[in-house]
Every structure is written in C-alpha cells, then in structure tokens.
From TrEMBL:
Top class in the EC scheme: transferase
Function, as annotated: S-adenosyl-L-methionine-dependent methyltransferase that catalyzes four methylations of the modified target histidine residue in translation elongation factor 2 (EF-2), to form an intermediate called diphthine methyl ester. The four successive methylation reactions represent the second step of diphthamide biosynthesis.
InterPro entries: 4pyrrol_Mease, 4pyrrol_Methylase_sf, 4pyrrole_Mease_sub1, Dphthn_synthase
GO molecular function: diphthine methyl ester synthase activity
Protein's organism: Ailuropoda melanoleuca
Catalytic activity: 2-[(3S)-amino-3-carboxypropyl]-L-histidyl-[translation elongation factor 2] + 4 S-adenosyl-L-methionine = diphthine methyl ester-[translation elongation factor 2] + 4 S-adenosyl-L-homocysteine + 3 H(+)
The EC number(s) this enzyme carries: 2.1.1.314
Protein name: diphthine methyl ester synthase
Amino acid sequence: MLYLIGLGLGDAKDITVKGLEVVRRCSRVYLEAYTSILTVGKEVLEEFYGRKLILADREEVEQEADNILKDADTSDVAFLVVGDPFGATTHSDLILRATKRGISYQVIHNASIMSAVGCCGLQRNIICGKKIQDSEFLNLHGSFYTDLRIQLPLDGVASIDFLDSFQMDFGNKAHW
Ligand SMILES: C[S@@+](CC[C@H](N)C(=O)[O-])C[C@H]1O[C@@H](n2cnc3c(N)ncnc32)[C@H](O)[C@@H]1O
C-alpha cells in the first residue's frame, strides 16, 4: 500500500494520529521536500515520529518514482507531504503511476495553506450561481464549492449528472 500523508502546516506535532500510526509501521517513509517546507527540519520529524525519513526531491518524485513505488504492492510505503498531499501539488501523478502498477493507495489528508489562508481574510469560495457566469471566473483556473443541502447526494460528492448540468449552463469553458 502506498500512503500519501499530509503533515499539516506547523511542526512535527501537526501530523494526524492516523498519519502517525501509519508512519510508525511503514517499511519506508519518504519526506517530499520541495513543494513546501515545515518550520522544523527532517531530524526533528525523525525524532518525533521515531523513524528514519528518506528525503525525496523533485527529481526523485517526478523522474524516479519507481524507487518510491518499489515493493509497495507487498509492503507499506509512506510519502509525506507538508500541508495536504493534494494542496497545490502534482502528486496525483504518483497515484496514477501506482494504480498502473496495481499498487493500492490511501490518502491521509491534513490542513492546507489553501484553507489556512482564510485567517488573513482571503476567502476562496465566496462566489456562486449567476455570479460565476457573469464574472471572469470561467477564464481562470479555479475551483468552487457547491451547496451541500440541496445540490449534492448524501455522500457529499458531486454527481456526474450534476456537473454535466453546469457544463450545459456554462458551455465549453467549464471543465472538471
Ligand atoms: C506548492 S504549495 C503546497 C501547499 C501544501 N501542499 C499545502 O497543502 O499547504 C507551497 C506554497 O504554499 C505557501 N505555503 C505553504 N505553507 C505555508 C505556510 N505555513 N505559511 C505561508 N505560506 C505557506 C508558500 O507560498 C509555498 O511556496
């Protein structure tokens, strides 16, 4: 199993309980060290987690992903990412590679700068309905959230039909 584990935004103690349990039992633990940085270094994390970490730079992750995925079909490998593993990263690539090789994966999310930025007064999701249509929103690379009460099925995931209806309303400029 490949685990992608978010480390949160502050220091060693921001990992989730679930993430820490996985880190402590994995056969190899990689620390992705190029999309973001914590306030503490690798040694502090190693001491708190009680594990040796393998630093993974951009080249290792993007050009030599096979090293990271090696034996992940028969043992557990953890890939640690500061913030959330999918907050402004391209780690979906690693998941696609794992899936292609028949390796299962699990994501353990954590706080991301993309949500924490709200504490500076910047909000990412105050835009809806007609305003999206009228604005330059569709010419940008952006995201929006839908109303859980009326728009989504109970599992909270937007259905393809629902997204298709937006596609019809907004034309070819909207992509998901
Ligand atoms: C490529 S993004 C990755 C974000 C990360 N995966 C997450 O979910 O928070 C990294 C950028 O986010 C910003 N960033 C990340 N953590 C931050 C923090 N604790 N304080 C301020 N900016 C931060 C910096 O601009 C940094 O270059």
